[in-house]
Every structure is written in C-alpha cells, then in structure tokens.
C-alpha cells in the first residue's frame, strides 16, 4: 500500500467505526444511521474500485490494514478492537469490490450483536459474497517473528516521522510518542514470548538510515538484557522506549556530520557530542511522558566512571537504565557497518566490553550481555570483517 492508500484505509475504518457508534445512538431507520451506512458504503466503493480488496485485521491492540499496521487508529479505536475480538469474536473483516448496501447492514448487525460461533461461515450463512469475517487469531497461532518484524518496521516509520518533525524544528507530538509506544509494546510482547528474537531483530541493519535502525536495535537489545535481569514487564516497557529514543538528539544533527564517510574533526565532534543534551531537551518538552527516556538520552555516553559526555558535576551517579542502554548502544554500534568502519565480529565486541567493564560499563551488565549471548542461538551470521581499531566513538 502506498502512503495515500494507507490514509484511505484509515479513512474507511473511521467510517466503519462512525457507523457502529451512530447505530448505537439512533434507531436503525433513523436518518443519522442511514447516512452513516451510506458514508461507509461510498468510502468503501471508492477504495475498492481502486484496490479491489481491503482486509482489516485485529491483533490484540493493533489494527492492521492490508498487512500494514495503522498505529494512530490502533490507539484511537483500541476499545472497538477489543470489543470486536473479545465479545463479537471477529478478528478480521475483508471487503471485496462490489459490496452492496445490504452487506453493510449485515456487517453492522454482526459488529453490534456478534457473528455467531463461526464467523468464518457467517458470510455464506447470510448469502454474502463481498464481506467476509474471520475469528480472532489465538496468541499461539500468531507468527511471533512476523508480528515482531512488522512492529520493528512500524517503529522505523514512526522514528522517520519523528526525525522529520525534529528536522523541521517543530515540537514532538505526544501522539508520535504514543504511536512509538504501540510498536514498542508489540515488540516487547513478542520478545516475552520468544526471547531468541533479540539477535534476529537486532541483526536488521541499515547502512543509509543507520540512526533509525540503531535506535530500534538498542531498544531490542536493552529488552534482551532486561529479560535476563528479570525486570518486570512495566519496567521493560520503559527500557524499550528509552532505547528507541536514546539518540533522538542525534537525528537533529547536520546530515553532513551524521553521514560523513571519514572520521570527524574536532569541531564536528563538538557538535556531535551535543546530541545527549539535545535529546534530553526534546524529551523534556513532552507533557506527561515518563522521565526515564530523557535520563537515558542524557546519560548514555556518560560512562560508568562519568568521564564520558556531557560533563556532569562530581559525585553524579549514572542511572542503572542508562548503564544498560550504554551496553546495548555500544554492542549495536560496534556490530554495525558504518561509512568509516566495518562491522566488528561479536567475539571482538565482547572482548572490548570485558576490557572496559568497570570504566565505561557496569561490570554486572557486561556479564548479563555475555549471559544473554550465551543463552541465545547465535544463528544470525556474523557481519563484515574486523578492523579492531575502531571502537565506540560514534555509538
Ligand atoms: Fe548516542
Ligand atoms: Fe546510540
């Protein structure tokens, strides 16, 4: 689906939801109800004449249209998604070109009163051919990895949107962070089911959009570390969000510095080293948000011995979640290929982390990383070669 067809699918879903809400307020033959049904029918007809088919899937908190997550609508229609799945036993609605008004009536009836015990045979029982229903997918039937990957790429899209906002010097919207939360929660839920996803997800890299992919990978690795530590789910959620946003200040850095193919000069370094402060500042302006992502954005280059950057007053103690993000940050940065360095093999990265335990890193968290790597199937292949000389300077 293109961006505009996604918007159209969002619009059609809004009409569907509007019809159900209107029908709950007015009798079936009331002008408002009739109008709401017509509105949906027209929106659907327009969409289907261009695309032929439209499938909405409800997967827990997530609304999917033709295999694309609609993050904003997932939040907006959360209750409706839960109602469809839990009380009406509807997990997906498919529309095929040629939908007739009587099929809209039948759909409204199904969404209002349920579609019976077998939603899959609802259409044939009613003699319908252009609207089909399916029951909700049971958690064990869901493809954990596919759901996690969808949410991974959804996070990338959201971060791309956040990047555009930051680059336009506009304030971040609470809604953008809310969207990121939806994807983050989905990734976390899948990782709780299958912790081995850590390395499979974190091995997704992008050379061109390094910072965006790196941000999601840091979230994934941080959750992996948090799982080994046995952190409670609510805290894991914050850990994941902090990982997603730790480099939000970096996406405001000049592109010529971010994408420079060689080492940075002194002046460029001065600018680059401002990203923790800039990120914390951006996050501090978000009303009602957790303070943890802001703290992690500020402290992730500080080092355990506080000799990193930004400079802090004597006696400052790095927050435990910043220490965790720092290990995840360096691990992902070193195992990624960049314009100025190759990817470093995991074994060498582990050696470096061990060497720096107690200075840059919390020794306990280095052990946790070792434990995590030991526990997981190292099925993803090592990327690139070893140029050992490059370390963490641009994590
Ligand atoms: Fe950073
Ligand atoms: Fe980073």
Number of strands: 5
Order of helices and strands: HHEEEHHEHHEHHHHHHHHHHHH
Q: In CATH, what is the class of the largest domain?
A: Mainly Alpha
Q: SS-based structural class?
A: mainly alpha
Q: Spans with pLDDT under 50 lasting ≥5 residues?
A: 379-394
Name given to the CATH homologous superfamily of the largest domain: Hypothetical protein af1432
Helix content: 55-70%
Q: What number of structural domains do the residues give?
A: 2
Bound chemical compounds: fe (ii) ion
CATH topology of the largest domain: Hypothetical protein af1432
Task: Describe this structure as you would to a colleague.
The protein has two domains: 3-137, no CATH class; 144-375, Hypothetical protein af1432 (Orthogonal Bundle). 58% of the residues lie in helices and 6% in strands. It has 18 helices and five strands. Strand 2 (62-65) and strand 3 form a beta hairpin. It is elongated. The site of one fe (ii) ion has 6 residues, from helix 10. One fe (ii) ion is lined by residues 214, 218, 246-247, 329, 395.
């Amino acid at each position: 689906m293109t961006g505009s067809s996604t918007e159209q699918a969002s619009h059609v879903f809004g009409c569907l939801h509007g019809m159900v809400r209107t029908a709950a307020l007015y009798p079936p033959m009331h002008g408002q109800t009739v109008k709401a049904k017509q509105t949906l029918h027209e929106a659907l007809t327009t969409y289907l004449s261009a695309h032929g088919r439209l499938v909405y899937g409800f997967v827990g908190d997530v609304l999917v249209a033709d295999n694309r997550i609609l993050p904003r609508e997932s939040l907006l229609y959360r209750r409706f998604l839960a109602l469809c799945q839990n009380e009406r036993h509807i997990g997906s609605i498919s529309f095929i070109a040629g939908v007739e008004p009587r099929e809209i009536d039948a759909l409204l009836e199904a969404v209002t009163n349920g579609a019976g015990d077998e939603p899959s045979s609802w259409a044939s029982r009613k003699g319908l051919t252009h609207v089909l229903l399916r029951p909700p997918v049971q958690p064990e039937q869901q493809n954990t990895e596919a759901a996690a990957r969808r949410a991974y790429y959804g996070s990338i899209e959201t971060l791309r949107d956040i990047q555009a906002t930051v680059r336009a010097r506009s304030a971040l919207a609470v809604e953008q962070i809310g969207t990121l939360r939806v994807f983050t929660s989905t990734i976390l839920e899948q990782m709780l089911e299958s912790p081995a996803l850590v390395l499979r997800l974190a091995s997704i890299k992008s050379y061109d959009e390094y910072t965006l992919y790196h941000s999601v990978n840091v979230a994934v690795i941080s959750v992996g570390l948090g799982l080994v530590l046995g952190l409670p789910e609510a805290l894991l959620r914050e850990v994941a969000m902090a990982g997603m946003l730790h480099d939000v200040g970096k996406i405001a850095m000049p592109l010529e510095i971010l994408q420079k193919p060689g080492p940075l000069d002194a002046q460029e370094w001065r600018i680059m080293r401002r990203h923790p402060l800039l990120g914390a500042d951006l996050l501090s302006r978000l009303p009602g948000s957790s303070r943890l992502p802001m703290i992690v954005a500020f402290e992730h280059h500080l080092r355990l011995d506080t000799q990193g950057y930004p400079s802090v007053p004597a006696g400052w103690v790095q927050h435990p979640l910043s220490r965790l993000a720092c290990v995840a940050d360096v691990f992902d940065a070193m195992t990624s290929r960049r314009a100025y360095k190759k990817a470093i093999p995991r074994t060498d990265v582990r050696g470096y982390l061990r060497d720096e335990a107690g200075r840059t890193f919390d020794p306990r968290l280095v052990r946790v990383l070792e434990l995590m790597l030991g526990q997981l199937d190292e099925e993803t292949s090592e990327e690139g070669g070893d140029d050992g000389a490059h370390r963490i300077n641009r994590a």
